[in-house]
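Annotated sample (chain length 363).
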Amino acid sequence: MRVCDALLPRLAGTYGVGLASAADVITVFAVAYGACQVVFGPLGDRYGKLRVITGACLAASVANLACALAPGFPSLLVARVLAGAACACIIPLSMAWIGDTTPYESRQGVLARYLLGQIFGMTSGSVAGGFAAESGWWQWPFVAVAGAFLVVAWLLGRAARDDRGSRRDGGHLFADIGKVLAVPWARVVILTVFAEGAAMSGGLAFVASHLHLERGASLALAGVVFTGYGLGGVAFALLAGRAARRLGEVRLATIGTAAISLSIAIVAFVPSLAAAGFGCFGAGLGFYMLHNTLQTNATQMAPERRGAAVALFASLFFIGQSIGVALTAQLVERAGTSWGIAASAAAIVPVGMAFAILRARRG
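Output written by the structure step:
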């Protein structure tokens, strides 16, 4: 998901396209990722979540190998579309499986620990992309990802034999989605995560490019600085169980939103790499405070159709991301990376605060 962020300047130079056009490798992945999740959710409910994830990992391995072997920019875009589609079910069906097998009162802590894998993957992708951008063969991270997916498919294939996640016969894709959307609180959660994706991801996608173009950091160093975002997520994951019990969902969402906005503004305007690292850490900590609260609500908003519900949640999140990246790319082209990142700092405030208010009213 994040391996192309620090690669954008290299891709722009290699293929002779602008930075906004190079960002299409992020946008098309997110669009395919978001659009296909609603298909995988009902499939996971019906055939077993771990079994469906196993097949998707095999397909993702092939797609990422195609990214590494793509002979030109159009073929790279096609390969990224296929990779996004193949990866689409992994996170939402895993979350739904946790919802099937974990009581609600301890679920937020379990989901936070599960986030460690996502965080490690995203930070590793950012770092790998930065180093690859300055190496002779920038495609090597895609080969590494393809190999990792093969290993995961083998491990999950074994675990799927004893899958304890629930299954449900019958149903239909559009009928399942309609029944999820008929729940008022589900609509609130889904709309919030869509807006969160649009508000956050546009700015984050250009942090590495911002540090390179505006702060003079090498692409490799920019990728390393951005790992602060992942470290913020790790800090939350390690403290999530205690934080959830002491603060509750409303205060987690409120504090997280404030931390995101302030931290992203620091990255945008403070001319220091050390401050940027601190800002990335704060943004990661705040994001996972807010997003983990949304995830926990998503696993319970339609328990009888949990796969479809969480898949719809994740789908709207990444569709929001794709829209956010596309809009921010245009702003970056016209006003520069500082203002593109600052737009995220401003946009996240009404999103997070509105959710906190509605969650408090719900009780």
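Annotation: The chain has one domain: 8-362.
Annotation: The two ends are 35 Å apart (CA to CA).
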